[in-house]
Amino acid sequence: MQWRNDKERYGAVARLFHWGIAALILAQYPLGIYGARLPPGFEQLVVLARHKSIGISVFVLAGLRLAWRRADPPPPLPPGMRRWQRRAAGASHALLYLLLFGLPVSGWLFSSASGVSVSWFGLVALPDLVAPSRSLAHVLLRVHVAMAVLMGLVLVLHAGAALWHHFSRRDPVLVRMLPGRARNRSARR
Amino acid sequence: MTRLAVALLLVLSLPAFAATGPGKAGACWKLQPARSTLSFTGKQAGAPAHGHFRKYSAHFCFDPAQARGEIEAKVRLNSVDTSNSTRDGILRGPEFFDVSDYPVATYKASRFQALGDHRFRGHGTLTLHGHSRPVPVTFTFRQQGKRAHAQGEASLDRRAFDIGQGRWGSTRWVGARVHVRFDLALTRAGSARGAGH
Description:
heterodimer; A: mainly alpha; elongated; disordered C terminus; B: alpha+beta; 8-stranded antiparallel β-barrel; 3 helices; about 15% helix
């Protein structure tokens, strides 16, 4: 098991962060959309509480991931990419990180503004960020949804670019993030 | 004949008896709603949920020197405000307060105990959602001329009043304990029950 990144591929920690957060983000869309459409009641409370708990998890994991990234920089992009492609890769990654924080924080702000305090799976109660305000809640919900849409678009770009690297450029950008492949290491999961 | 005399004596003495109000039930006070609050904190999905009631009234007669009095508060449950209209709607609905059948909660206390330093405990009964249960309150009562301030709290288990039915009955998503706080601004209304306002 190789924990840290090297020149060719991502280490186990970076891959675990990547796929762990990816799984949580993918769960957030159905939970958030389904929860928001439910009629007010018990089920809505439960579904949205899970959505918030997972969002807080994403927030914490994204913070840990950034800290780890500082200590363990990612492998460089493969040679031969154009300048705009490198820039696009850098910008989309930066935007994804921004949204990994922006989405949970905007959701947390929205909850506070709508007078509902947030807890992490009922175990840790979080402080309210702003005082209840109907008009502020209205705006924050729109911001939260807009960020979710933006993240969806960037994720499509992100996954599309990974496939482009793999199938069109035939470079190791996708493979080096896949779990348990390359250099005949046994699968981790 | 003697019976009649005794009865007559009793009837005649009634006004005098009532006039001793301050001794019996203490001076009566009028609630100043604009300067008072009645709030509560429960737990929702592991996080505290705060709310307050906007409409309530209180018949408040209390003599701090003797720790005697009579308090009766009525709370209009549809005035619940938790800063979230969706949650307020659920609270007013049939699974919680069921305000269409039980619009008012009443708290009545006529037995008090001095705890010292202006603090008192009232042994009263809360009638809520068709259930009457003893709920003690602890409060401070501070008087300054024609004004007084009653500030206190109580803790109750919502399940004792069947608040939160069906799936809400589980305490995993809505806690059982509800902490109630009140901060009542009072002005002197006159002695004796029913006197004055």
